[in-house]
Amino acid sequence: MGKKKAKFEELLADLEKTVEQLESGELSLDEALECYEKGINTYKACHKILSEAEKKVRMLVQDDEGNLTEEAFEGDASESQS
Amino acid sequence: MNPIPNQTETGNIEGRTIHTVSQLTRKIKRTLDDSFQRIWVVGEISNLSRPASGHLYFTLKDEKAQLSAVMWRSKASATKFELRVGLEVLVYGNITVYEPRGNYQIIVDKIEPKGIGILQLAFLQMREKLETEGLFAPERKRPLPSLPKRIALVTSASGAVVWDMINTITHRFDNINILLYPVKVQGEGAAQEIAAAIDDLNRRCEIDVMIVGRGGGSLEDLWAFNEEVVARAIYASHVPVISAVGHEVDVTIADLVADRRALTPTDAGQIVVPDKRQLEAGLQQSAMRLSSGLLNAVRNARHRLDGVGTRSLFRRTVERVRMYQQQLDESVGRLHLHVSHRVEMQRSGLDAVAAKLDTLSPLKVLKRGYSITQDEKGNVVRDATEVGIGDTIETRLACGRLRSRVMSSES
User: Fold this and answer.
1) How many C-beta atoms surround the C-beta of residue B381 within 10 A?
2) Average predicted confidence (pLDDT) for chain B
3) Is domain B36-115 annotated with CATH 2.40.50.140?
4) Which residues form the domain of A37?
5) Residue ranges of B 160-199 with Cβ closer than 8 A to chain A
6) Do A81 and B158 touch (CB under 8 A)?
7) Minimal Cα distance from A4: which residue of B?
8) What are phi and psi of A62, to 5 degrees?
């Protein structure tokens, strides 16, 4: 745990820095193009992280030996009360 | 001197009725036992002593009198708040006599603080105790992950609350991973279950953050979240903990120890994950700014070049201008590409463009297993009728080419 989230935050900060650099207007044309490409790549990487997680709702259940295993948690509140 | 009368009967010596101390004490005891059963008495605790036996001994007093009190271990350990010297209490019990000392005392069955609820006092005492120990210190609160990959919920698997949490979370971030650790959230053993779940989740180490909570209820219903064992488990957790107990007005000990207190279970869902659409909109915004930044850079370059052009009439050679011109042409070529990007992006989002660029790459197409067939003249064959039996055709694959002869064809 932890690695991915740090990465996302870093990328986001990186993207913001790149944007600000490009908007500063102090870059040569070549530098601007380079900056743009770098920014777009960071943007894509951020997007990838946002979409890569899988939607899953699991519940821990104790088996006969007392070990906890995961199983899907589905249905609605009234069902789960039974 | 006098002969000792037997223990069961009152002696009669020289016309006087004589009691032994034991006999008299027993009589007094009987009288008191009969007349002072199931009584309530109010007073202030003093001379409190807690020997290792677990029984509690204290004196109840007011301005003018005092009364010895005993609370047996079973009753003492069931008392939710802590008895302290100076505390005004209401005591319920029976008066009896402790024969070895000839003391009368009250055997306490129930004790309540005066003027304040038991649970309320217990809460205040626990808060004071844990605060002194530093469990609520702001500097020990851990930051929550901004984008958790997996969230654990420690709550009851039945009822609406768990679904409030799940729905709020998935509404904000559709592709998230949630792990429910079902626990009892009220009644006997609930606090122990909650604490064990928190410990367990820490050992399993697969989650980035956890929400511990339940829906609204009476102070009794919420009591598990005020118990020390839960507070200690939250404090010991390596995984950041969001508490979500009851409604906004219900502040529990768990809320005070947690890294973040959510006002309600729904609020917890909002705290634990960012709104994905908002993040995406922010990203989109950044991409837009990149494009307009680039556009400005090109405008500036052209502006500079124009300046150079006029001055160069005097200072620079024609070749130099041409070189700039050529550089600009190249840049503008690249710009066109990027401006078309930008237009596309505004229309359908950058994602689509990125994906399209990827899929349009001929190499990519070949890599997916498609191939290109050409006839002897090098024309791409799109229709089986374009080649005859016996013709030689060349097939281009992702890796290498094949030359083959047509044996039959169908169209």
Assistant:
1) 17
2) 84
3) yes
4) 3-52
5) 160, 162-163, 166, 170, 174-182
6) yes
7) B149
8) -85, 125
Nearest to B290 among A39, A52, A59 (CB): A39
Would residue A25 be called left, alpha or beta, if left means φ above 0 and alpha means ψ between -120 and 50 degrees?
left
Question: Letter for the amino acid at B246?
Answer: G
B175 and A53: CB-CB below 8 Å?
A: yes
ipTM: 0.76
Rounded to whole angstroms, how far apart are CA atoms B260 and B11? Answer: 77
Closest chain A residue to the Cα of B332, Cα to Cα: A29
Six token digits for residue B405: 């002869």
Contact A27, A35 (CB under 8 A): yes
With CB atoms and an 8 Å threshold, state whether B179 touches A60.
Answer: yes
Q: Rounded CA gap, A72 and A58, in Å?
A: 4
- How far is B253 from chain A, CA to nearest CA, in Å? 26
Q: Which of A47, A49, A51 is the best residue to mutate to test the B interface, defined by the most B CB atoms within 10 Å of its own CB? A: A47
Cα B298 to Cα B294: distance, rounded to the nearest angstrom: 6
Q: Please tell me the distance in Å from B187's CA to the nearest CA on chain A.
A: 17
How many distinct structural domains can be found in chain A?
1
Residue B205 with chain A: CB contacts under 8 Å: 1
CATH number of the domain located at residue range(s) B122-137+148-273 in this protein:
3.40.50.10550
Interface check B293 vs A, CB under 8 A: yes
The residues spanned by each domain of chain B are 36-115, 122-137+148-273, 277-360, 367-405
Q: In Å, how far is A45's CA from the nearest CA of chain B?
A: 11
Q: Which positions in chain B touch A13 (Cβ < 8 Å)?
A: none
Sort strands A68-72 and A56-62 into parallel, antiparallel or unpaired: antiparallel
Helix, strand, coil share of chain A (percent; to 5): 60, 15, 25
Between strands B103-113 and B88-98, the pairing is: antiparallel
Is the CB of A54 less than 8 angstroms away from the CB of B175? yes
Inter-chain residue contact A47 with B283, CB threshold 8 Å: yes
B21-67 per-position pLDDT tens digit = 999 999 999 999 999 999 999 999 999 999 999 999 999 999 999 99
CA separation (Å) from B189 to B41, B185, B220, B224?
Answer: 32, 9, 13, 8
pTM: 0.64
Amino acid residing at B298: V
Cross-chain Cβ contact B180/A46 below 8 Å: no
Among A33, A25, A38, which residue's Cα sits nearest to residue B304? A25
How far is the CA of B281 from the CAs of A43, A46, B166, B275, in angstroms? 12, 12, 23, 10
The residues facing A69 across adjacent strands are: A61
Contact, B194 vs B257, CB < 8 A?
no
Q: How far apart are CA B177 and CA B149, in angstroms?
A: 6
pLDDT (tens digit per residue) in B212-269? 999 999 988 999 999 999 999 999 999 999 999 998 888 999 999 999 999 999 999 9
